[in-house]
Amino acid sequence: MHPDQAKSFLTAVNHRSEQIKDANLVRELWQKWCEDNTQQYLNGILCYGRILGGLNQKEILSKIFTPKKHLLRLYDYLSCEAHREVLGQILQKEFRKKY
């Protein structure tokens, strides 16, 4: 790494180290990141792919084709450790069978 790059990198690391000391700032940055990436994650989970995902940027498809109970079920699977483990096991088994 060039000395100028190293200095810039260390400055950035020191700045980030100072930022993570502020729990409120970390929470705000995390929430902003999640908000900015919501559609990308939902498109992946809902299997919309690139074309339908692009159409869904304004959440039109997900509002029409995704019932509330589907999202609640998905939330339950992800928030419960037991359900996460079961889902992980099933997906791992299915992936091994097919690939």
- State the distance separating the first and last CA atoms: 40 Å
H/E element string? HHHHHH
The secondary structure category is: mainly alpha
Unreliable spans: none
CA radius of gyration is: 20 Å
Strand fraction band? Answer: under 5%
In total, the number of domains comes to 2
Shape summary:
extended
How many separate helices? 6
Helical content stands at over 70%
Overall number of strands: 0
Sheet with most strands: none
Average pLDDT reading: 87
Summarize the structure.
The chain is mainly alpha-helical. It has helices at residues 3-19, 23-45, 49-55, 60-65, 68-79, 81-98.
Notes on the structure:
The chain has 99 residues and is mostly helical. It folds into 2 domains: 1-66, no CATH class; 67-99. The chain is 84% helix and 0% strand. It contains 6 helices and no strands. The radius of gyration is 20 Å and the shape is extended. The termini are far apart. The model has no long low-confidence stretch (mean pLDDT 87).
List its traits:
99 residues, 6 helices
How would the blueprint of this fold be written?
Blueprint: H1 3-19, H2 23-45, H3 49-55, H4 60-65, H5 68-79, H6 81-98
Helix pairs in contact: 2-3, 5-6
